[in-house]
Amino acid sequence: MSYFIYQSKKIFYNETGVGKPVIMLHGDTASSTMFEMLLPLYEKNFNVILIDFLGNGKSDRVDEFPAELWISQAKQVIALIEHLNYEKVSLIGTSGGAWVAVNTALERPQLVEKVVADSFDGRTLAEDFAKNLLAERDYAKNDLAKQFYEWCQGKDWKRVVDLNTRALVECAEKKLPLFSKPLETLAVPILFLGSLEDTMCRKDLPKEYEQMKQLVQDGEIYLFPTGGHPAIATNAQLSAKVITEFINS
Fold first, then answer.
1. pTM of the predicted model, to two decimals?
2. Which of 18, 40, 94, 99 is deepest in the core (most CB within 10 A)?
């Protein structure tokens, strides 16, 4: 296991495979563990780098998550790229990790070759996001989802989930910006990926993706007709094919 130091805390990362460097970014309440079953689809084409954001997975714990969580996590990704001394990497972010990927590219475009933003709501959170999130998390902690939480986080999964929920609720209630800079300034190619059957994303996802595509300099969209959340896992083989072609094109 490998770690680097960020703000006096240890952040876990792992590298596997050969080829162009690609960092996979997990979503909220998850960790890099969620990508382990997908690695055989990517490591033959890419040098895949996994990271556990601070407070998640095998990384050091924190007392709280900042409300501008996805901007804060982008700074951790930048620190990892600099630690590894890569000139350019591509980023695959799923769910919350999609915002992180975009923010990383907005902050340091010279370090990023391409971005895949999978299964996320885009520029805004729904008006009822906070209420729905609280209800969803309360239900999930007593449902099969708790097995996913424990698989990703370990024995202290409840605390991790609660801290994450608190941060996202604050972000939604204060209507904080989800991107560190205007999306129009994104200077790297981006693929918006998702599934039309994903009930955890906004209902007008195709419209939101299309509007974002019009704003960025170089954007593409790929929506699967079936599959749940996130697309990269529920349409694993097809997602890998689409993503590999996009990054290598």
1. 0.97
2. 94
